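Q: What structure does this chain adopt?
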Amino acid sequence: MSAAIPITRLDRTASELRHFVSKCGDGAQVRRLLAIALVLDGHSRAAAAEQNGMDRQTLSDWVHRYNATGIDGLKSYHGPGATPLLTEAEKAELKALVVKGPDPEKDKVIRWRCLDLQVEIARRFSVRVHESTVGKWLRQYGLTRLQARPCHPKSDHVAQEAFKKDFASLMKNALLGTTAGTPIEVWFQSLPPGLTRGTKPEWVKRARSLMFGRRSARVR
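A:
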């Protein structure tokens, strides 16, 4: 068996290393420091390595790093990973595109889907990704999918607001002479805006049960 690599850096004692460990958030660095502290206390390399979940050769490798660069040499370093598919400028451009929304005449869609953005990203940036990747990017940008209640193109918003504000008078005119002076109950029932055909029946039932409402009106 070859001779153990001596610890030549003696600017910190075993107690000082343990004190540093109490404030360290890197678990791997903590194990390496504790192993070196045990060696400084006089324990064998094999025992110090075993108590901290490594073999003797691995401990010798970390002793080399500790002698060369001290405590910082025992940190865990991770590579930068794969190069991002989009640059920061392209990410900003994509986010602005999604927030602005599509041009129905130019883009041939009325709202962006991940499938549509997948094609647009390939056209603009020459990058091909899966739909799920597009959705992950949008969530990273702080965006979420919200769809407003569909609105019929011929709906009259003025008439709708007038109906809401003058509901009691409309009811009075409709029921005049039949229930005058009698309290009545008016029930409303509608589906939530997100429900469409194809929704699972149990979800439809659960959502409908939450949408029943009741208003009381008195026709005078």
